[in-house]
Amino acid sequence: MTSTPPTTAAPAAPPTGLRAFYEDPAVPVASGADRSHRQARMLARALGPVRPDRPAATVLDVGCGDGTAAAVAARVLAGHRIVGVDWSQDALRRAARRVPQVVRGELSDGRLPFASGAADAVLFSEVVEHLVDPDSALDELHRVLRPGGHLMLSTPNLAAWYNRALLLAGVQPVFSEVSLRRIHGRPGDQVVGHLRLFTARALREFVAASGFDVVRVEGARFHGVPRPLRPLDRLACRLPSLASILLVHARRK
Length: 253
Hints:
Layout: H1 17-23, H2 33-47, E1 58-62, H3 68-76, E2 81-86, H4 89-95, E3 101-104, E4 119-125, H5 134-144, E5 145-156, H6 161-168, H7 200-209, E6 212-220, H8 230-236, E7 245-252
């Protein structure tokens, strides 16, 4: 009788495509401080302080990256529970240094590891522009939020004040990318993997179509604006349709 030699599991294949791109430690996973602070303050106003008659809220930072934004939110949202969620193991290792609790979860892989209605609020900070299927992603955020729960979504503005001027000059807008290898046809030299870009009007309509009531839209500055132009970028925040970054507060129906 001939024995069959034991089999060994094949090593896991290295990530490819977009997964490999986002698992690369050189790809930035943190966003601007101005956006983080403004978004945290918006959520703090929505949730209110923790009191005996108002228990701590559960806030999921979905696509938390290195945890920078979650750490800012935790300082502003004293007493509330912040959970960082990301599918990049490298990002989670970095986030764990800043956030008390991190969980691995994938929006594109069916379901996040949370029960329906488990969250009081979701931070979704500069993630939607990286997604192949943003519709399914918002469906999943809708599922994990309780009725009336808060969605705080931010994304770069395709119609930012300087992008309007660039397009008139025939230059590719800032934030847009035609390649995952290098920048072509626009200012800057850092590829960050943007697949979708929104104007303020498109973002409002997209969020509303996903089962949310849009409460407020605000603007935030972009850290990459050259120093001499930063006063203009700060001024543009007063009119979100011209701002560098769009911040949306919406509530789950």
